[in-house]
Amino acid sequence: KSTLIKVLGGIYTADEGEIIINGKKVNIDGVKAAQANGVAIIHQELVLVPYMTVAENIFLGREPMSSGFVDKKKMNHDAQKLLDDYQMGIQANQLIKELTIAQQQMVEIVKAISYNSKVIVLDEPTSSLNIQEVEKLFEMMRMLKDQGISLIYISHKMDEIFEICDEISVLRDGNLVMTKSTEDTDMNEL
After folding, report:
1. 111 by DSSP, 3-state: which?
2. How many other β-carbons are positioned within 10 Å of the β-carbon of residue 23?
3. Which SS3 state, helix, strand or coil, does residue 159 take?
4. Distance of alpha carbon 107 from its chain centroid, rounded?
5. What CA–CA distance (Å, rounded) separates 177 from 142?
């Protein structure tokens, strides 16, 4: 699973196989290529800067500029719009360190969306969440799916997989063992 994530995210270059996004074969040979092809990775360990605001984290490295300076007003406005569009209940000017783990994860997802991602890979996203936070995450994932964004959900929690996934692929020792529609399999077969 970690190799798959790194290949999709552009950290490793695939030495065999194909990556096809929206029916088109793509070449992901670096992180920028992954972003250009609409792939975003939400790692199990979040990579936000705790003493920066939500808006600063969302636009880190691509801040809107005006007259040679960061346009904080535009950055906060654009970030708040994204947060409001997904009903986050988070303020763009809040410091990351003030947010719960679940809220930080939502910021990571909003950051991925801000890159116009077509494919978002979520690696063990519920490992630090309580039941209510998992439901909020699943609600957001359903919203993203309805907008045509593909989600790759990596988890060992079978009950969650059966609740949220349309298809299930099983990887073992680096090999694809099975891919089936969720409705065509069960816990025993997995």
Report:
1. helix
2. 5
3. helix
4. 10
5. 27
3-state secondary structure of 155: coil
Q: What pLDDT is attached to residue 156?
A: 87
pLDDT in tens, 122-134: 999 888 888 988 8
- Cβ-based neighbour number of residue 40 at 10 Å: 23
Give pLDDT tens digits for 34-52: 999 999 999 888 889 999 9
Task: Give residues with Cβ within 8 angstroms of 151, minimum separation 6.
Answer: 119, 120, 121, 122, 141, 144, 145
Q: Any residues with CB less than 8 A from the CB of 23 and at least 6 apart, and which?
A: none
Dist. CA 33–CA 54, nearest whole Å: 25
In this structure, the strands spanning 150-154 and 119-123 are parallel
Map residue 107 onto helix, strand or coil. Answer: helix
Residue 41 half-sphere exposure toward CB, CA atoms < 13 A = 20
The token duo for 163 is 């609740």
Collapse the DSSP code of 122 into the 3-class scheme (helix H, G, I; strand E, B; otherwise coil) and give the result.
strand
What is the rounded CA–CA span in Å between residue 80 and residue 96? Answer: 14
